[in-house]
Design a protein that fits this description.
The chain is α/β, with parallel strands linked by helices. Helix content is 50%, strand content 13%. The chain has helices at 2-8, 21-25, 27-38, 62-72, 87-105, 113-121; strands at 12-17, 45-50, 75-78. Mean pLDDT is 78; it is low at 118-126.
C-alpha cells in the first residue's frame, strides 16, 4: 500500500516529530525509498518538523531540521497542529512547490499567435 502511494503521489509531506529523534533519523531512509519507487534522483518533498510547540521536550533542533533539508534539497518548515502553527502554510507551500515542479517537468507549449490573439480579445470588467 505504501509503495502504491509513493508510485502515484505527485509530492510528499514528510513529517518527523521534533520530540522524537528516531522519527527524524528515519527521514533519509523514507526519501531513498520514495526515490527508488519513483525511479528518480530528485523528487518533490517538503520536510515538516511537527510538534514544534513542545520546545521543552525537543530532541531535534530547528538547525538540525534545516541542515537535513539542505542535504536532501527540500523545503523545511516547522508546525504544530495543537496550536495551528504553520498548518495551512505547509499545504500552501506544497501546492506552490508542486506547481513549480510540474511546470519544470511538463512545460506547457508556447501558445500560437492565434491563441494569443484569442486570449487578448477577452476582457471582463467588474
Amino acid at each position: 500500500m505504501r509503495g502504491q502511494c509513493m508510485r502515484t503521489g505527485q509530492g510528499f509531506l514528510s513529517a518527523f516529530s521534533v520530540i522524537d529523534r528516531g522519527s527524524f533519523e528515519e527521514i533519509c531512509k523514507f526519501q531513498r525509498q520514495i526515490l527508488r519507487v519513483k525511479d528518480r534522483d530528485v523528487f518533490l518533498m517538503i520536510l515538516i518538523g511537527d510538534k514544534a510547540d513542545l520546545d521543552h521536550q525537543r530532541q531535534v533542533t530547528q538547525e538540525e531540521g534545516q541542515q537535513l533539508a539542505q542535504q536532501l534539497k527540500v523545503t523545511y518548515m516547522e508546525a504544530s497542529a495543537t496550536i495551528r502553527m504553520n498548518v495551512d502554510q505547509v499545504f500552501h507551500e506544497l501546492v506552490q512547490v508542486l506547481r513549480k515542479f510540474q511546470e519544470q517537468e511538463c512545460p506547457s507549449p508556447e501558445p500560437t499567435r492565434k491563441e494569443k490573439d484569442k486570449k487578448a480579445c477577452h476582457c471582463v470588467i467588474f
